[in-house]
TrEMBL record:
All copies of domain GS beta-grasp, residue ranges: 88-181
Protein name according to UniProt: Glutamine synthetase III
Entry-linked Gene3D superfamilies: 1.20.120.1560, Glutamine synthetase/guanido kinase, catalytic domain (3.30.590.10)
Family of the protein in this entry: Belongs to the glutamine synthetase family.
InterPro entries xref list: Gln-synt_C, Gln_synt_N, Gln_synth/guanido_kin_cat_dom, Gln_synth_cat_dom, Gln_synth_gly_rich_site, GS_Type-3, GSIII_N
Domain GS catalytic: 197-620
Length: 725
């Protein structure tokens, strides 16, 4: 089959594809299935002895230490519930530093001597498991021969039953630690940082008259962007299969310039996928709320409701797994890479952050008159201080080879970490800096000019999509995380830097009150100091402008453009002191994450470099040479016949073929030299030499795509992948 026929067959299969019917039980209501497969608080209340239930609930809601004596009762009830749900196995699910989900399955059934078996699941088994610790990234925390690692039950995140046509599994969210107690996962530091932040947030609340405040937690609402590509096209692209992004591909005649895809009508096939996915998410207790088309063709978004940060990060991992499996059921592949297609919108995972408790709600709600809301202003000022002091750490929390392709590009914030407050709050803090806030800009009214339509309330400030850390009315939105990344990493940093800032605020206020200073005066002094010392991080302008990097440098803000620039922030003296002080990471754990970051960067670039060489040598170059040969044969035949031949097309093809060959030689040489280095030097060489060589090869190949005869070009094009669904 010729190259063109392969693509034509894929297109034909796409056109004739019939989405699978989505089976709903008769009379089924969405509310009935929500959490149906979750061992939730309500399920525990029905199945656990009253004393056991109260003990577990206290741990979940008030973070009291878990009583180990309750484990057997919980394990027995969990096992019976799971068996009723059709589960045959259980799995301790954890989140290693690969960024993916890991699990080890064990059967409930234990054989007995008479040829039968009985189902068993003890409290000891629930609480602790033992997977191999040496085969996951550990950054030097474990040697290859030191294989022992432990999983530990996280009662804060509910167990659930994961359905599969071949059998159901009880999944138990756990932490994953080494034999020495060091974190080998993303969940453990989330729990540690949450605990640290809560201590100091509650100190601040006590100063504002809340004598015994409810336990404060951080909340996270991550928006997930993604692309969908038909499976036929995906399987014909070795780069998508192995790297998750296209290493080649000419810009299509039509991209996203018309903005006709954004919020447009959702294609029927995609809507079927979304409905099927949401049903599975609902059963797992994942509060999917919003779905819509995103800016780029073939790009979409889902946004959940806010949850506790720990549970939200678990659910994000589960959401990505669910999307992948359901997409394949619908004949599509779900792409989470931050930049799977060059020249169009990249995909992020915007982390909406807040903190609060069940008694007070969110502590980042300004109210109608934020200038009078001193408690809000202190918590907001803590955010300003933390982001200014530790912007480099925030940048490092979203650093990856894949996210480097997105930051600063279409619809993504720049690598410079700044805060957008909006007109109202910016004005309030400006007043504070000048001596005291006495007014707040009021909400306005939008008059539409149509008699049948009511006037609409207008917020006192606009939104800013170019800001990496923006206040959006009752929360802050960290827009820099990439769609492929876990939200745990940025949440760990946010929680920890907020712990430091709230510790600072509480200490200043406690000292002032103890010295006899009026509390309101102490608050005013604290706010004035923070905005004077850290106001440089506030920027309400256009983060895409050419002037902003220059201004940011004058303000003293870091511009860590790449992962190689950002990773050293993890092992700075300031970072090690911060994370050690609040018992989130030890110095060894910080160095391990730095080493893993470098390793993951090099592995990603290495795979992409090898793929570039393979695809260019075995697909692109042969296609171009065949076409060049056809043209040369035609020129020779015309010349032999005495006809003057037009050689312009032949020359046009020959030039990029030469550039392609030169690029291949440069990349081969760069890859060979790469292995003579190590650590950050190797990563810097990859950034400065391997990636540019790959880019030159791509430029030549993409030029050839626009010249080579279509019947000789085998790679599915952007035009096909982005628009045929």
């Amino acid at each position: 089959m010729s190259a063109n026929k392969v693509r034509q067959q894929a297109i034909s299969d796409v056109e004739s594809y019939v989405p699978p019917a989505i089976s709903f039980d008769p009379g089924e209501e969405p509310g009935e299935i929500f959490g149906a497969n979750v061992f939730s608080v309500s399920v525990m209340q029905k199945r656990l002895p009253k004393s056991v239930y109260k003990s577990v609930l206290a741990t979940i809601e008030k973070s009291t230490p878990l009583d180990p004596d309750v484990a057997d009762a919980v394990a027995s009830a969990m096992k019976d519930w799971a068996l009723e749900k059709g589960a045959t196995h259980y799995a301790h699910v954890f989140y290693p530093l690969t960024g993916l989900t890991a699990e080890k399955h064990d059967s409930f059934l234990d054989p007995v001597g008479d040829g039968t078996a009985f189902a068993s699941f003890s409290g000891k088994t629930l609480v602790q498991g033992e997977p191999d610790a040496s085969s996951f990234p550990n950054g030097g925390l474990r040697n290859t021969f030191e294989a022992r690692g432990y999983t530990g039950w996280d009662v804060m995140s509910p167990a659930y039953v994961l359905e599969n046509p071949n059998g159901n599994t009880l999944c138990i969210p756990t932490v994953f630690i080494s034999m020495t107690g060091e974190a080998l996962d993303h969940k453990t530091p989330v729990l540690r940082s949450q605990q640290a932040m809560a201590v100091h947030a509650e100190r601040v609340l006590k100063l504002f008259g809340h004598a015994d405040p409810e336990h404060v937690v951080s909340y996270c609402g991550p928006e997930q962007e993604y692309f969908l590509v038909d499976s036929h096209f995906f399987l014909a692209r070795p780069d998508l299969i192995n790297a998750g992004r296209t290493l080649f591909g000419a810009k299509p005649p039509k991209g996203q310039e018309f903005d006709d895809h954004y919020f447009g009508a959702i294609p029927e096939r995609v809507l079927g996928f979304m409905m099927d996915t949401e049903r599975e998410l609902f059963k797992l207790g994942i509060p999917a709320k919003t779905r819509h088309n995103e800016v780029a063709p073939g790009q979409f978004e889902i946004a959940p409701m806010f949850e506790r940060a720990n549970e939200a990060s678990d659910h994000q991992q589960l959401l990505m797994t669910t999307f992948k499996s359901v997409a394949r059921k619908h004949g599509m592949e779900c792409l989470f890479h931050e930049k799977p297609f060059a020249g169009v919108n990249g995909s992020g995972k915007h982390v909406n952050f807040s903190l609060g408790n069940s008694e007070l709600g969110s502590l980042l709600v300004p109210g109608d008159n934020p200038h009078d809301n001193a408690q809000f202003l202190v918590f907001c000022a803590a955010v300003i201080r933390s982001v200014h002091k530790y912007g480099g750490l925030l940048r490092s929390s979203v650093a990856s080879a894949s996210n480097d392709h997105r930051l600063g590009a279409n619809e993504a914030p720049p690598a410079i970490i700044s805060i957008f407050l909006g007109d109202q709050l910016a004005d309030v803090f400006d007043q504070i800096a000048k001596g005291g806030a006495t007014r707040s800009k009021e909400k306005g009214t939008l008059t539409i000019g149509v008699d049948t339509l009511p006037n609409l309330t207008k917020d006192p400030g606009d939104r800013n999509r170019t800001s990496p850390f923006a206040f959006t009315g009752n929360r802050f939105e960290f827009r820099a995380p990439g769609s492929l990344q876990t939200v745990a990493a940025p949440m760990v940093v946010i929680n920890t830097i907020m712990a430091e800032a709230l510790d600072y605020c509480a200490t200043i206020l406690e000292t002032a009150v103890a010295d006899g200073t009026d509390f309101n005066e102490a608050v005013q002094s604290l706010l004035t100091t923070i905005i004077s010392d850290h106001g440089a991080v506030i920027f309400n302008g256009n983060g895409y402008s050419e002037e902003w990097p220059i201004e940011a440098e004058q303000r003293g803000l870091k511009n860590l453009r790449t992962t190689v620039d950002a990773l050293p922030e993890l092992i700075s003296d300031e970072a090690i002191e911060l994370f050690s002080k609040y018992a989130v990471f030890s110095e060894r754990e910080m160095h391990s994450r730095y080493e893993i970051g470098i390793e993951q960067y090099l592995l990603t670039v290495g795979v992409e470099a090898n793929l570039t060489l393979e695809i260019a040598n075995t697909i692109v170059l042969p296609s171009a040479i065949r076409y060049q040969t056809e043209l040369a044969t035609n020129v020779a035949a015309l010349t032999a016949a005495g006809v003057e031949a037009d050689v312009s097309t032949l020359r046009a093809v020959t030039a990029p073929i030469g550039a392609l060959k030169a690029g291949l030689a440069d990349l081969t040489s760069a890859v060979d030299k790469l292995h003579d280095l190590s650590g950050i030097e190797e990563a810097a060489f990859a950034r400065d030499n391997v990636l540019p060589a790959m880019a030159s090869i791509r430029a030549a190949a993409d030029e050839l795509e626009g010249l080579v005869a279509d019947d000789l070009w085998s790679l599915p094009t952007y035009q096909e992948m982005l628009y045929i669904l």
